[in-house]
C-alpha cells in the first residue's frame, strides 16, 4: 500500500508562501528538488506572501482561486504545498480545489517510501506514514459522517472511522515491537564493537551533500549515490583501515533537511542511533552550496534532538571541484584537525582526511623515543610487529634507539605481556597527554 506508486508520472502544481517569520520560511529551490526526487512532474510554481497562515485554508481566498484555475489549466493531478498543513487545512483545500493536496511532510514521507530498501527501512517509513495518516483519517470518510443526531439517523461513518483507527493503532503497535527487536540487535552489535575496541565513525550531513559518494570512495563500496535528495535512506556499515588506529566501522546515514518532520526523526531513531553512539561524526558539507551555513545549523539541530550533540565532529567541506580550490586541512587553536576540504567525486584530499581521522581517533597515541638494552630483543621485535617503529639506530654501547608511534593502550599491553615496567623506558613527560586531549 505505502510503497506502490502509479506507473504514469503525476503532474503537480506547487505552492510556496513566504512568511515574515524566518522560522516559518522554506527554500523554494529545495522544494523543487524534493518534488523532482519524488518522481512528480512540476507543472508550475505558485508563489505568494503572507504575514501568517490562514487557519482554515493556509492561504487567502484570492490565492486559492488562482491555484484552482491554474490546476484546471494544466490538468494537474495534485497540489503540493511547501509547508506543513494541519489535517483540517488539507481537508478544506481539497474540498475547494477539487484535487488531492499534499504537504511538505507527506512529500518527504513519499520520497522515503520510494527509497527504503531494507526490511528495517520499510518498517520505519511505514510507521511514520501510519502516524501521519492517523490524524487525517477523517478526510477519507467525510461522505459517511453523520449529519444529525437521533436514533436511526446516525451514519456508518463513525463506526468505520473507529474501526480504521483501531486497525491503525494495532499496526503501529506491531511495528514498534518489531523495531524494538532491531534496536536491540543494533545495541548488541555496538556493544560487541565496543568490547573489541573498534572505533565507529558516522557520516552525517544535509541531504545531497555527497556522503554516499565519499563513503563509496573511501570503502570501495557501491552504495547508491545520486544527485537527488534522500538518495540514501538505509544505513550501511563498512570496514575502513585508518593509519595509527587500525580497523574502523564507517556508517553512511540518511541525510538531514530543514524542518525534518518530527515523526521521521522518531521513526528513524534506531537508525540515527549509529550517529548518537559513534566515536566521531564526519559532518559532510556541500562547500559550493550558498546556504551551507544554514544547512550546517539544521544538521546540528537534528543531532541535538537525537542525543548526538556532544559527539566529536570533523567537518568535511566536499565538492571543492565546483569551487576550483585545492584540498587542505584546517586545525583549531590546539592543533587538532577541524575542517578537511576535499572532492569526493574526484577523490582529492583523501590523504588529508585519513590524517585527520588518524589523529582524532587515536587520541591515546604515544609518540616518543625509547632506549633498549641489547638483550631486550623480544621487546624490540614486539614493537616491530605492531608497526610502531618509525626509526631505529644503535649507539656506541650497542643500545637500541627507537622512535616509536602507537596507541598507549597497545604499548602498555605489550609491556605487561613481556613483564616490563613501561614507565622505566620512557623519558619524563612521555605519558602526558596534549592539552586538547585532556578532559
Automatic annotation (TrEMBL):
Residues annotated to bind GTP? 205-212, 230-234, 252-255, 318-321, 343-345
Task: List residues of the Hflx-type G domain.
Answer: 199-365
This protein's GO CC annotations: cytoplasm
From which domain of life does this come?
Bacteria
Compartment(s) where it occurs, according to its Swiss-Prot or TrEMBL record: Cytoplasm
Show the InterPro entries listed in the entry: EFG_III/V, G_HFLX_dom, GTP-bd, GTP-bd_M, GTPase_HflX, GTPase_HflX_N, GTPase_HflX_N_sf, P-loop_NTPase
Q: Which cofactor does it need?
A: Mg(2+)
Entry's family note? Belongs to the TRAFAC class OBG-HflX-like GTPase superfamily. HflX GTPase family.
The protein's role, per its UniProt record: GTPase that associates with the 50S ribosomal subunit and may have a role during protein synthesis or ribosome biogenesis.
Protein name, as recorded: GTPase HflX
Say which species the protein is native to.
Chromohalobacter israelensis (strain ATCC BAA-138 / DSM 3043 / CIP 106854 / NCIMB 13768 / 1H11)
Protein's gene: hflX
